[in-house]
From TrEMBL:
Superkingdom assignment: Bacteria
High-level lineage: Bacteria, Bacillati, Actinomycetota, Actinomycetes, Micrococcales
InterPro entries per the UniProt record, alphabetical: HotDog_dom_sf, MaoC-like_dom, NodN-like
Record-linked SUPFAM superfamilies: Thioesterase/thiol ester dehydrase-isomerase
UniProt record similarity statement: Belongs to the enoyl-CoA hydratase/isomerase family.
CDD domains reported for this sequence: NodN
UniProt-listed Pfam families: MaoC_dehydratas (PF01575)
Residues of the MaoC-like domain: 15-127
This protein's name: MaoC family dehydratase
């Protein structure tokens, strides 16, 4: 999937622009296990098949923070800026995990350019993001506002 980059000088006129959806990406049990090992978050709903099966989720699910951290690839598929010297993730606001992501599920990201702020050295953009689970219904797995800074 090829997308056209938004010129840095045009970002201020892009408020409200819809982004995506990205292609689907799978979150595997291996991804979940590696994340659990790296972070120490070994809650049984993520790593223990029997315990997770007995939980309200009926099986192992991805960590919410793992799902959120997987934003980079799909974001690059739906949002690009040209003319910046560099860009950074400044932070996230209003992060919520409304629905689980079962192990082996496919997710994709949709977004909207919610805010654009011209700064002296950069343009700060807030993207309102929603992570969808394939076959997961209307409730997103993650909703968050991603704040980016694109430096001149």
């Amino acid at each position: 999937m090829t997308i056209e980059a938004i010129p840095l000088t045009e970002l201020s006129r892009q408020k409200g622009r819809e982004l995506g959806p990205s292609p689907w990406h799978t979150i595997t049990q291996h991804d979940i296990d590696v994340y659990a090992d790296l972070t120490g978050d070994d809650n049984p709903i993520h790593v223990d098949e029997a315990a997770a099966a007995a939980s309200p989720f009926g099986g192992r699910i991805a960590h919410g923070m793992l799902t959120l951290s997987m934003v980079v690839r799909p974001l690059r598929e739906i949002y690009r800026v040209s003319g910046a010297t560099t860009g950074i993730v400044y932070g996230f606001d209003r992060i919520r995990f409304p629905a689980p992501v079962p192990s082996g599920s496919r997710i994709r990201v949709r977004g909207r350019i919610a805010e654009v702020e011209e700064r002296q050295d950069s343009v700060q953009v807030t993207l309102a993001l929603a992570f969808e689970v394939e076959g997961g219904g209307d409730k997103p797995a993650v909703v968050a506002d991603l704040v980016l800074r694109h430096f001149r």
